[in-house]
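Async update (no meeting this week)

Hi team, since we skipped the sync, here's where things stand on the single-chain job. The sequence we agreed to prioritize is pasted below, unchanged from the tracker. I ran it this morning and attached the output directly underneath so nobody has to dig for it. Comments welcome in thread, and please keep replies under the output.
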Amino acid sequence: MKIGRRRREEAEVESSAMNDIMFFLMLFFLIASTLANPNVINITLPKAKTTTAVHTKTLPITVKVADKGTENERVEIYFEQKLVAFDDMEAILTEERDKYADPSHPQNGLNVVLRLEKDLEVQDMVDVMQVVANLGIKMVLATDKSTK
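Output:
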């Protein structure tokens, strides 16, 4: 009778799925790190004893049509969330502009974000923009991203 050695089975760990998992983790972290600061290149900045901070104030101005389709239809103007009359706009904007104006640092100052309702008449839009432009205040028109 032939007595042979028993072949001993060794324990193995399948690692073929591990490659897929590592690949997906690498992709996830690459994408996540890109989305964190997409327009910033990460560098070490030099040290300085004094620095100048830019102090700007962003004032959202919302213009909307109230009571649409009724005889009471009117244009409402909001500075942040406060209702303001059109005649008071120039005085309030002048006060805000002067509060944040810094002649030694022209990059500082007041910036206006115009949030205009899409159903607003063009003349109402131009009237509001003209007041802001006459005061020399920088303005940006806010829009929604188009889905088309």
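Quick observations from my side:
The radius of gyration is 31 Å.
The first strand starts at residue 56 and ends at 66.
Reply here if anything looks off.
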